[in-house]
Every structure is written in C-alpha cells, then in structure tokens.
Design the sequence.
C-alpha cells in the first residue's frame, strides 16, 4: 500500500479512502465508469470529473462493515453540486437499510458549488436531514477533516451534525471562509492571508480545544484510520442514542456558556489562554502533548 | 472544453487481465485518467476532454508516444484534463497504466 | 410588509401574539382553531451565534412545553441575509451553533411537531440552511428572495462571464437567485400569490406534510432537478 504513510492533507480522496479501510475491502457505488458527471459544469464549459468529486461506497474497517464517502478537495474545492450531493445522500439512505457500524464522511469541501448553487444548497440540506435520520436510527456518522479545503459552508454544518468529528491540526472547520469575510467586511475583520491567524480561528487544535472536534490526530492516514477504529469500538460498547431533549438542553447550555465565556474573543490565543497553562506553546505542541494537556484541563 | 478521440495501434498488455482504474484528479494543471477494458485487443482508444483549446498536435504526439512505449491494446483511456502540461499528461498516463495492470489498490 | 401586518393577514388581528426582540420573532398564533408556535427572524437578519441560540432555545422550549401533550405545530419565519460574517462568530464555531439549531429542529420533528417554513423577505445560504430549509414544508411569499449568491458575485468567484451566466439563468433554475427557481428544483414546496388567502394556505400546508424528505422527487417532477433523485437511487440500489 503506497498510501499508508503519506500525509492525509496531501493525499487525494481515493488515496485517503484506500489507506483508511481494510485492504481490498472497498466497493464503490456509482463508480467513475458510469460517468455520472455534472451537466451543469458541462453547460458552463468547466472541466468535469467522472466521479463528480466524491467517492462513495462500502468497505470494512478492522472487520466492521462501514459506509464511506470521500470528497476530493482538489476538484472544484470539493464543492457540492447536484450529482456530488445526491451520491452522499444516497449513501446515507442506503445506510438506513443496511445498518453499517458507522458512516465515515471524509469531508474536504468549501460548501456549495456555485456553478450549480441552488442544486448544491438543496443537496446540502438533504444531506443534513439524511445525517440526522441515520443517527436517529442509531448509526453514528463520523466526519474526518484534514484535507486542503477543510470543512466550510454547509459542509461545516454537516460536519458538526456528526456524532464524532476527527481533525488533524491542518484541518479547518468553520462556516464562512476567511476570504469571504475579508471581501465583505474588510481586512481588519479577517486577514485571510494571515495563515497563522486563519489557523488559530478555524484549525484543528482550536476546534478540539473548544470541543467542536472530538478527536485531534496526526496528519497521517493511519492516524485517521486508528481513530475511526477506536470510535467504532466505542459505539459498539455504547450504542448511539437518538438526541433527546435532555442531551440537546445540555448541548445548549454548553454552547451558551462558550459564547458567554468568550463573548468578545476574536483570536484562538484567547481560547488557549483560558484553556492551557502555557498558552504561548500551544501552536508548537505535538498532537500527543496537546491531547495530554487538554485532558488535564477537562 | 475541446473533445476528440484517437484510436492508436498497440499490443495487448501482460498480464491480460486489467482492472478499471481512475488515476489523478481534475484540478488546475492536472488531469484524471479512467482506464477500462475494450473489446478490440490490438488498438487503444483514447478519449480526451480538455479545457485547453488548440493543442491537438501536441496531444497526438504525447498519446502516440504512450501507445508505443506501453502495451495498451484493448484499453480505453478517458481523460478529463484541466490544462496539464505534456510532461504531467505522460506521467499520469504511465501511472494509470501501472495501476490497471498491477495489483488493485 | 411588516411582520405584524403579515401576522394579521395570516391569523387575523386577534389570532396571534408574536413579539419581536431585535431580529428575533417568537410567539403563539391560531391556525384552524389550533395553537401553533411561531419562531423566526426578521428584517433580513444576519444569523450570528446569539440569534442561533435564541432560535434553538425557542424550539427546545416548545418541545419541552408539549412533552406530555399533543405537540404543537411550529411555523418558522425565515427572513435572513445569511450567516453573520464575523471573525468572532467563526472563532466560536458558528457552524456548530447552526448544527445545534438543526438538531433541535430534528428533535421537534421526531417528537411529532409539524414544521412549516414561511419565507418572508429573503432566505440566503447558511441562514436558510440552519432551520428554514429543514422544515417539512417550505412556503414562500410572493416577494420572497431566495439565493446563495447574486450573479455578479458568482461571476467574480467562478470567473465565468456575467453575460453567459445571465443568458443561462434565463433557461436554467440551477444557479440563479429566485424563489421560482427553488420551486422548480423542489427546494420550496409552494409559492403563495398576493391574492391567495394566506391563512388558508398555511392551514393547508400544515395539513399536507410528508413523512420523508421528498424534495429530490419533487424537483424531478417539476423538471428543475432531474438527477438528484435518480443518482441517490442509483447509489441506494448499488
């Protein structure tokens, strides 16, 4: 396996997928030879991809049956169009019937594909409802975020609907991209070219510290694989219960407390200062050390 | 986008069993190659869909060279290209060929 | 049209008690002699962390109040220019707050609350995704604006010539702004006309709620979204 040791960030969707699941266990639904490409991109004379930028199918992970979707961030920023979105939605619908141990969403997307914006927005809404339905049926959905496009726009919302969010330090998770905020509100609001700032506002360590991500792992495909295996084991032991009024009231209290505690915060440094003994060192901490120190705070 | 199909003579690959594979990603300066088995064993069909207009001669040269260097008879290669250079095209074609005759990843 | 005028027309002058606090709307109304909960935003609200929490709180409050009685229908009023664009909100995880709202909507649905959205003013991308688009049935007033992005901005981002986009927008509902386009694609179930009896249409909307998400099928029937249903089916049948 050539994909085993390479960076998750650098890998393509297909490399991530094949490095993540058990060897030779993957079977693709709606594979590229069916040529289900986007007619909307074609009408705008834009390049097409035979899989429309997302790979979906079934596999095993440490022997457990899983469903998996991997978005290709390098094709149109992993953006969701009609076909792309329908493939993910179809996968989730199928999960309801076949009840895999988990559905893994390898999110790498800027959100809605503008060339087919209305179709993309509705598709994301359909994916949101499908994720909620699958999880209400007790099947956990895991979002894995560590690609070059991160998880933005509607896919940022989808990511946070998932029972678990596994991120690498390089992964980014938010709603509006820094470029959009800068364009509309000005560079003083958000300087999208300040990479360190972007990372402190959207990156994996910040999201893990806030509890938006449930695990932080190294930028390696096997690290994402190991985390996913651990999570499957967790849900085998403690099956996912549908969100109840009590769990949502607790989540509401948690989110309210965060917004009150950080009522004026605009930089991840303020979160580090409130969470870590040595805030200045957070950016340089290894993932293991970061997780250890975070564990001591909780 | 510009589209055209070339049918080139070539020997059938060893081993004769080939997998359908997709290699590469459609992004600026890059391309994807879909390899599928074809009935005719002595020719290779190459379908090109490219965003770069007017480079038909260069494509012809690169693809002919590829069909001469490898035994690709009985294969159909479908390319979605977003402006890759000839060097990148050659590299991707070689990778796709290796994947389709090698052990499936 | 102001919200109070809208509510008078929907429920009659004595049929509602809905108050606004800033950009947030909340209260009760009568539809067909039944009490419903009304939750929404006004004045083209940019939805930030605080507003998202208000919406979620109102939904949870309704679900809790009806825990041991028959669940009230909920009407969402969507008037939003989209998500708030601010570094502070993104730092806190605005997407996570929106996901929380979506989970609350889903809980209400699972607890048996019928959910209808009425688009008044505008419904734009993230702000529309958070709750309005998740209702069982989505209705739009005649002047409603629905979009992801206007064509000029879309042209800048995609680097596709504006004239080309305008030309295509005249024949395709797939990317251009407009409630009519969303109707054709199944993203909006119905668009009301100025001459309709809105109270009756709302009652009918609550009476015609489907069990599952049939928007892809509707989009196919209306001819605006011809692949979504068949591709999802292709995957489901694989």
Sequence:
């Amino acid at each position: 396996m050539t994909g085993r040791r390479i960076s998750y960030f650098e890998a393509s969707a297909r490399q991530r997928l094949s490095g993540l699941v058990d060897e030779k266990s993957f079977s693709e639904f709606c594979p590229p030879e069916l040529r289900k490409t986007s007619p909307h991109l074609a009408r705008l004379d834009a390049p097409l991809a035979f899989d429309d930028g997302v790979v979906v199918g079934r596999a095993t992970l440490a022997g457990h049956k899983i469903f998996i979707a991997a978005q290709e961030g390098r094709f149109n920023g992993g953006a969701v169009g009609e076909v792309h979105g329908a493939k993910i939605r179809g996968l989730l619908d199928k999960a309801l019937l076949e009840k895999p141990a988990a559905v893994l969403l390898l999110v790498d997307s800027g959100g809605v594909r503008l060339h087919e914006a209305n179709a993309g927005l509705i598709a994301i809404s359909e994916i949101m409802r499908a994720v909620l339905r699958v999880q209400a049926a007790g099947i956990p959905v895991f979002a894995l975020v560590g690609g070059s496009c991160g998880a933005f726009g509607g896919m940022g919302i989808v990511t946070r609907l998932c029972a678990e969010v596994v991120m690498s330090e390089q992964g980014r998770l938010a709603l509006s991209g820094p470029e959009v905020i800068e364009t509309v509100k000005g560079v003083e609001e958000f300087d999208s070219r300040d990479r360190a700032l972007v990372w402190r506002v959207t990156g994996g360590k910040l999201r893990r510290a806030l509890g938006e991500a449930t695990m932080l792992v190294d930028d390696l495909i096997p690290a994402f694989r190991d985390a996913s295996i651990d999570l499957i084991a967790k849900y085998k032991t403690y099956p996912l219960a549908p969100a109840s009024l009590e769990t949502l009231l607790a989540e509401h209290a948690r989110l309210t407390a965060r917004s009150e505690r950080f009522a004026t915060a605009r930089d991840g440094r303020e979160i580090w200062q409130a969470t870590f003994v040595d805030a200045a060192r957070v950016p340089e901490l290894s993932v293991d050390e970061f997780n250890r120190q975070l564990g001591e705070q909780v | 986008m510009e589209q055209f199909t070339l049918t080139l003579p070539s020997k059938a690959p060893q081993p004769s069993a080939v997998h359908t594979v997709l290699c590469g990603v459609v992004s600026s300066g890059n391309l994807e190659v879909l390899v599928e088995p074809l009935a005719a064993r002595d020719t290779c069909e190459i379908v090109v869909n490219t965003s770069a207009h007017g480079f038909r001669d260069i494509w012809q040269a690169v693809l002919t060279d590829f069909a001469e260097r490898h035994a690709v008879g009985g294969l159909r290669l479908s390319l979605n290209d977003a402006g890759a250079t000839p060097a990148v095209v050659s590299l991707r074609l070689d990778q796709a060929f290796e994947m389709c005759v090698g052990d499936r990843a | 049209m102001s919200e109070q005028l809208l509510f008078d027309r929907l429920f009659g002058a004595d049929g509602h008690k809905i108050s606004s606090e800033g950009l947030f709307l909340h209260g009760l109304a009568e539809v067909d002699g039944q009490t419903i909960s009304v939750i929404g935003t006004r004045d083209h609200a940019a939805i930030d962390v605080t507003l998202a929490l208000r919406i979620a709180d109102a939904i949870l409050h309704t679900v809790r109040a009806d825990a041991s009685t028959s669940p009230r229908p909920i009407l969402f009023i969507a008037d939003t220019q989209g998500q708030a664009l601010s570094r502070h909100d993104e730092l806190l995880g605005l997407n996570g707050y929106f996901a929380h709202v979506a989970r609350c909507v889903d809980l209400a649905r699972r607890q048996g609350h019928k959910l209808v959205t009425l688009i008044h003013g505008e419904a734009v991308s993230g702000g529309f995704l958070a709750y309005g688009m998740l209702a069982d049935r989505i209705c739009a007033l005649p002047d409603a604006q629905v979009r992801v992005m206007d064509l000029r901005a879309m042209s800048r981002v995609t680097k596709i010539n504006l004239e080309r986009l305008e030309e295509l927008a005249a024949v395709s509902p797939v990317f251009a702004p407009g409630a009519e386009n969303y109707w054709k694609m199944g993203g909006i179930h119905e668009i009301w006309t100025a001459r309709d009896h809105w109270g009756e249409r709302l009652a009918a909307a609550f009476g015609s709620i489907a069990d599952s998400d049939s928007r892809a099928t509707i989009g196919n029937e209306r001819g605006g979204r011809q692949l979504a249903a068949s591709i999802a089916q292709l995957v489901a049948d694989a």
About this structure: The mean pLDDT of chain B is 92.
